[in-house]
Amino acid sequence: MLKSGPNVSGVIERVWKTVRVWAGLVCLCTAQQLFSEESVQPSALDSLQAGETAAPAVTNKDSTKSPASASRLDRVGGLPGSIAGGVGNVNPIAATNQTIDMARWTARRKQLKLGDGNYGFTGLPILIYRPASKSWSYGVRLQWADYERRPYRYKLTFNWVRSTAGKVSLFGRLRVPRISGTGFGVRLFVATTRDVRARYFGLGNGSVFDPNLADPNHADFIDENYYFYVLERPRAIMSLLRHIHGPVSMSAGFGLERSEIEPRGARSFYLDDGAREGVIDGVTGFLSLTMQWDSRDDPTIPKRGAFHEWSYETSRNSLIGLFFEEIDFDRYTLTDSRYYPLGERLNLANRVIFEGLKGSVPLYAFGEIGGSRRAKGVGGGDTVRGFDSQRFTDNIRTVTNTELRCRLHAHRLKKQWLEWSGVFFVDSGQVSPGVSDLSLAGNHWSSGTGLRLYWNADFVVRLDLAFGDERGSASFKYRNIF
Q1: Quick one: 124 and 102 in the same domain?
Q2: For residues 166 and 133, is the Cβ–Cβ distance under 8 A?
Q3: Structural domain containing residue 124
Q4: Is the pLDDT score of 269 beyond 50?
């Protein structure tokens, strides 16, 4: 029987081994930065391939363009004269920096031009074998974005995945950060899922996972799917965004979802544990309010800045209760993400999540973390890697993720801009029935390494290998963890 809990010596040993590997990687990144800086900059040919038209540099008669500025300008194939000239009359140095940055930003994302618009289309088929469930997953992920302005005018994402074990995941998402002529934006999300391996291991930070109960060859065997249940959950969420001032914005959202839960096998732990007593399934609605501070340089692949979010959700004291049987609980989620550049190639990123649940919480709500970017609960590829998905759950949950990100190589292939990055990370998390029960010693730790592919600077392919106290795990995702 494996009992959860912090194994400090094991964590230190795993972290030390990984640090030694990454010390060599950091040295390699530093050497590449000193001796091959040109390799990561888009050339004039890159910009021309992406649709940029080279133009002669515009200079001011009272100023002289520096060699460094001239070199940077040549790399992106020149600038439109009207833009550079208008800004250059005020401050030629600022004009050069700003327009070079904008030209580079567009060249790395744009794939086609329709009329006056710059658009990007990326996508990949999905084919993965999952040893844990002994099944194949297959599907497709597609993304379309309008890059007429930063970060985009709108972005559409479509994802469909099906597995031979019976899992289905289908969602579509539309994000419009700012509607032209207004201070408002909108975010729409529609999805339907059938998760045949939703987990429940019991409440509490010290919940016990006994693999013998799911092992047919052991005397204590109960059922192979003892810790799993089937969750069917169609949902729709709409949020109205409002820019307040500078990096500050807020949103109000409304969501509807239907949840149906049933055992995966003949016996299930959540029934034996009594977790379903007094809990309602069916159609549920919720209202949400969110306040954000977002100073990141890019929402998809940030390298500097910060993202703070305060989110509140409720299914209580609203009109929802007039139409549907009300599930009575509230969710409070605080997220703090920070990004620090340590050089041309190195970045340090850190995220802290604190969440509290209050009321009669249904089983599926325990299994996820809220906010504008929802993720499965404490444990798994989006929170504490190296532990089983949704491994720990209770009314209070905390998560920390720290990543050292190193850009390894960048190049253009068939008009596609590709960046490769390596990552070393340390994760931790814990849960408790109340805030006063939290402690530093109660954290569950994991560490590992990963590889990132950034396609056209806006499509992420993430592969992580992590080791925790109970197991090692590999995760494959189409987004950064934060």
Answers
A1: no
A2: no
A3: 2-8+118-477
A4: yes
Q: Does residue 23 belong to any structural domain of this protein?
A: no
Q: Are residue 102 and residue 149 in the same domain, yes or no?
A: no
pLDDT of residue 46: 42
Bridge partners (DSSP) of residue 19 are none
- Distance, CA of 103 to CA of 118 (rounded, Å): 12
CATH number of the structural domain spanning residue 161: 2.40.160.50
CB 344 within 8 A of CB 301: no
Positive or negative: CA dihedral 101, 104, 108, 114: positive
Q: Measure the N-to-C terminal CA separation of the chain; round to a whole number of Å.
A: 33
Sign of CA dihedral 286, 192, 142, 138: positive
As a whole number, mean pLDDT of residues 317-344 equals: 79
Number of H helices, E strands in the chain: 8, 21
This prediction has a pTM of: 0.79
Beta-carbon contacts of residue 64 (< 8 Å; ≥ 6 apart) = none
230 lies in the same domain as 291: yes
What 3-state class would DSSP assign to 44? helix
Residue 202: per-residue pLDDT: 92
pLDDT in tens, 156-202: 999 999 999 999 999 999 999 999 888 899 999 999 999 999 999 99
Nearest to 422 by CA among 13, 54, 27: 27
pLDDT at 454: 96
pLDDT at 352 over 90: yes
Q: Is 58 in the same domain as 123?
A: no
193's tokens: 């899922």
